Amino acid sequence: MKARALTIAELERINYATGIGARNLLDQLSKLAIIASDAHVEKRREAQNCAPCFYLSRYRLAGQAFTHWNCQLCEAPQPMHHNTAVPRICAGCATTYGLCVCCGGDIETENRGRRTGRKARKQKCSPEARQAPSGETEP
Prior knowledge:
Elements: H1 8-37, H2 41-46, H3 51-56, E1 67-70, E2 77-81, H4 91-97, H5 114-122
Antiparallel strand pairs: 1-2
């Protein structure tokens, strides 16, 4: 069976879809290049973020609602966060254990052995370290 010739409208839809796919691919490749170069490593470490969270955080979705949250390590209540994309780890635990506040992973994106994880769970961060980062206030 012979395929029929495509209409101009069908060809335009195909070209439009192809263009979107090509732009998405270039966008993803540029994001990977930014993460691989880690050009702002000092700012990233100061913000206590891993490379993917620091460079891709603007692509996260969040609702506009003040949200209560607890640290996943020390389980201490934290100040209300300005949106629903709350951090996973408090600033104190993140600094103590070298973790990303957004995802809770290692700040240098390196795997850790099981022993390191167990020791980190047994310890608790100090009350001084649990204080809110600058610019945030207690509820």
